[in-house]
Fold:
Amino acid sequence: MGKWLDIGAVVFAFVAAGFWFASACGTLPTMTTYWGSTPENDPYFQALKFSAAMNTLASVSSGASALCMGLKLFIKG
Structure:
C-alpha cells in the first residue's frame, strides 16, 4: 500500500505542475475598460478565469499529493 501512495504522490505532483504551467504560460491580452461591468466574452476576463481554474485544479492536485505522503506515514509496509 505504501508504494501505491508514493506513486500517487508523484503522479499528483506532476499533474499539479502541469496545471500551474498551463496557468502561467502565454500572455494576457490587452485590458480594455468598459462602462458599467465587464462582458463575459472579454478576452482579458476569460484569460483570468482560465488562470484561476488552472490554479484551483493545481492546488487540489497538490493537496492530494500531500495527502498521499501524509497517509504513508501512518501505514506500515
